Amino acid sequence: MQKLLSFLLHEEENLHYQSIENITIISGNVVACDPNFFEESTPFQKNIQPGSYPVSLLLDKENSVAGSLITFSNQKPVRFEMATKPGQHIKNLEKNMIFGHPVDTGLSCFADGSAVLKMEELERKKINELGDDFISFYDDVLEEKLEENNDMWGNLILDEEHNLNALIFSSGYGDGFYASYWGIDEKGHVVSLVTDFNIL
C-alpha cells in the first residue's frame, strides 16, 4: 500500500494536515488535473452528491505537499480504490502501473467538471483581452492566486453566483504522473478523494 494511503488509514506517517478552502461541486463530477492543461480534465467515473466540501493538503516535515484531500463525509475510510475515468479498468493495469493525471507545470487541482469549462472560457477571454501580451494561463491568471498563499495553493473563483471554484496546489516535488483514490467507508460509501504526489 502507498505510504500516503496508509497514513490516511492509520495516521502512522509523519504528515500533517493544512486546511485550505472548500471546493464547490455542482454537477457531481470531480476532476483532478494540471490546471494548465485542460485536455487532461476528464472527470472521474464516480459521481458525488453536489455540495461544498473541505479540502486539505497533506504536508511532510519540509512542508512539501504529499497529497491533496477532499472530505465528503465525517465517516473514516477503511480502504481506498484508485479513481478511474470512463473506459479505464483497474483489472487491465499491469503490476505497479496506475491511472492518473500528468503534471507538467508543478501544479495540480481539484475542480467540478463545469469549473474546468469555465477555466477554458477564462483562458480564451484573457487571450482576447491581452492579445500579444498574453503569456500563459499560469502567468496571467494562476500566479496571482498562488502568490496569495506562498505559492503553495490558490483558490480560483470561476462563478461567484454559485461559488464555483478550482482549488490549485503544488504537486509534491513537481512534475509527474499522479493517481487519485476514493476513500471508502465500512458501508461502501465514498467519503473522500485523495491525490498522492509520490513524495513518501
TrEMBL record:
Give the source's domain of life in one word.
Bacteria
Q: Name one Pfam family in it.
A: DUF4241
Q: Which InterPro entries match?
A: DUF4241
- This protein's name: DUF4241 domain-containing protein
Which organism does this record belong to?
Priestia endophytica DSM 13796
